[in-house]
Design brief:
This protein is of the alpha/beta class and about 550 residues long. Helices cover about 30% and strands about 25% of the residues. It folds into 3 domains: about 210 residues, Glutaredoxin; about 190 residues, FAD/NAD(P)-binding domain, CATH 3.50.50; about 110 residues, FAD/NAD(P)-binding domain (3-Layer(bba) Sandwich), CATH 3.50.50. The chain binds NADP nicotinamide-adenine-dinucleotide phosphate (NAP).
């Protein structure tokens, strides 16, 4: 049995092993890693010394790390606009990457990782992340706030470094240690790490997979779901689902679970109306949940099964034994198709509405509400949407007035109660006749239906929340029959009059709840599975009727 070595000897041999591993890794680099250190004489002395010793030890380990030191008052510091010490600048002739502070503790992982990437001159990003990074068309000034005690920070800092290496033409990175740069951290309210700002916009809080980091950087807002993209010109699959709302995504999960390859095509944001609902009430399992959160959970789940094609508009569908779907990007062929196209915002149809859309008229309080903080707006409608949106606007500091054409609300009682308990003004029996203004909305013309009085009402915003109309353009073009109310006509299996074409969700009418849409999507998926195994259209009954049973 081997004798246990004294502890001191063990740790020094461990240190020697780490040093040896680092030497092997750095010596193998195809390129040198120039590192400039800027220090301030007399200021931050302990930190300056720590940074100096750290870099010296790396340059001793391998000649590939080329270390030079400059005073903050030097010409070099002025040329490179360095104003605080210690600041480290890496390979400045190639990249714009700097570290403000000393990368010790957990941050040593950032230092080693970034120097290796710089030595290889590659970001070594995944194909999907690189695709997103490559399409960013304008400058990104990235600030990553980190701390030496944060185990999640190196991952996020390295994501930023990878970006700066892959896109030196648009990306600059500052990794900022909040402990030695408290003033900057205060300015950005970066009180927890890691946080990433791009062009001074907070784009990430916490560590992210590099694909999500890339997407957040591209969109300049926090992203929580990444959908892989493909360049395929033709996608041959079993089921195509048009629409990525609750009905379409639930259908996709169930078709794939039934063994059918499935593609979901969505032209806009995933989640449909739910994505822009500030708070969803009573989705079973959640008394209250932000719509976007619910959508993110749903999309992440669906992505475990289906392939999602987002941002593609379906332009043509041809039915037949093999259904053909043409989108703005590619072609799909499938054995069955589910139309889960949902519904569009209903318009008021009054003069000025279209004219001022995006200039004071909005259909989405979650999206546009913050622009109206401290301003006066009306919300039109008396259903759950109008009440939810009015409460959301009120809660974010918008002066909100609800305008309803009746004297009672259609919204659920517990929601309506909140309107009254918050003293949100309600104009009962009132209709909007016109929206007026110059550049932007300045007033609405209202009519009290009981007294007949017509009067101008000064507001800066009009939020229309009067329900939805089914999106049936594709169904119509395909020859799918509609009900007298304009929804897709379907049987209890969600079959339409065209064999192989099904419907689900709000486009069918009915209760229009998230859970009912999901239930309809699930039922449609299971019908597709059963029908593809035993096609009803080849059965005697199917042949006799020629179409799906209604
Ligand atoms: P809705 O329930 O159909 O209500 C539409 C409201 O707008 C009604 O009060 C209606 O007035 C009014 N309206 C319709 N056309 C109008 C016009 N031209 N001018 C003025 N007012 C007009 O629609 P929704 O509120 O959008 O809700 C749609 C579905 O989503 C509902 O099933 C709802 O329960 C659901 N939803 C649920 C939640 C949740 O948190 N669980 C949140 C939002 C929506 P009248 O009352 O006079 O008809």
């Amino acid at each position: 049995m081997a004798e246990k070595k004294p502890e001191r000897q063990q740790s020094s041999s461990w240190g020697a092993q780490v040093e040896k591993n680092l030497r092997v890794a750095f010596d193998a680099l195809p390129n040198e890693v120039p590192v400039m250190l800027f220090t301030e004489k007399g200021g931050n002395d302990a930190l300056n010394m720590a940074a100096r010793e750290l870099l010296k030890s790396f340059s001793k380990i391998s000649s590939k790390v080329v270390f030079s030191e400059f005073d903050l008052k030097s010409e070099e510091a002025g040329k490179r606009n360095v104003t605080s010490g210690p600041t480290l600048i890496f390979d400045p002739d190639r990249y714009s990457i700097r570290y403000l502070g000393v990368p010790y503790g957990e941050e040593a992982r950032t230092l080693v990782g970034m120097m290796l990437l710089i030595g290889f001159r590659t970001g070594n990003m995944s194909e999907q992340a690189l695709k997103v990074i490559k399409r960013i068309g304008s400058r990104r000034e990235i600030k990553v706030f980190v701390s030496p005690t944060c185990p999640y920070c190196p991952e996020q800092a390295i994501n930023a470094v990878k970006t700066a290496i892959e896109r030196p033409d648009i990306a600059s990175v500052e990794i900022i240690d909040i402990q030695s740069n408290q003033e900057t951290a205060n300015r950005y309210s970066a009180f927890s790490v890691p946080q990433v700002f791009a062009n001074d916009v907070l784009i990430a809080h916490g560590a992210q997979a590099e694909e999500l980091f890339a997407l957040s950087l591209d969109k300049l807002e926090q992203q929580t779901v990444f959908i892989p993209e493909t360049d395929a010109e033709l996608v041959e699959t079993d089921v195509v689902i048009v629409g990525g709302g609750p009905a379409g995504l639930a259908a996709g999960i169930y078709t794939v679970r039934s063994g059918l390859r499935t593609a979901v095509i969505e032209r806009g944001p995933l989640g449909g109306q739910v994505a822009t609902t500030p708070i969803v009430e009573n989705y079973p399992g959640f008394a209250r949940v932000p719509g976007k959160t619910l959508v993110d959970i749903l999309v992440s789940h669906a992505l475990e099964y289906v392939q999602i094609f987002q941002g593609e508009e379906v332009v043509e569908i041809q039915s037949g034994p093999r259904i053909e779907v043409r989108t703005s990007r590619r072609r799909f062929t499938a054995r069955a198709l589910i139309l889960a196209t949902g519904a569009n915002y209903k318009r008021l149809g009054v003069p000025g509405e279209m004219n001022f859309m995006g200039r004071g008229v909005s259909y989405c309080a979650t999206c546009d509400g913050p622009l109206f903080k401290n301003k006066k707006v009306i919300v039109v409608g008396g259903g759950n949407s109008a009440v939810t949106e009015a409460l959301h606007l009120y809660n974010i500091g918008v002066q909100t007035v609800l305008v309803h054409r009746r004297n009672t609300l259609r919204a659920q009682e517990h929601l309506a109660k909140n309107i009254f308990s918050n003293n949100i003004e309600v104009l009962w029996d009132t209709e909007v006749l016109e929206i007026r203004g110059k550049e932007r909305v300045a007033e609405v013309v209202l009519q009290n239906k009981r007294t007949g009085e017509v009067y101008p009402f000064p507001v800066q915003g009009v939020f229309v929340a009067i329900g939805y109309e089914p999106s049936v353009d594709l169904a119509k073009a395909l020859g799918v029959e509609l009900s007298p109310e304009g929804f897709i006509k379907h049987d209890s299996h969600h079959r339409t009059n065209i064999p192989g074409i099904y419907s689900a969700g709000d486009v069918e009418g009915g209760y229009k709840q998230i859970v009912t849409a999901m239930g309809q999507g699930t039922e449609a998926a299971l019908s597709v599975f059963e029908d593809l195994a035993h096609p009803y259209w080849t059965s005697e009954q199917g042949r006799q009727s020629g179409v799906a049973r209604m």
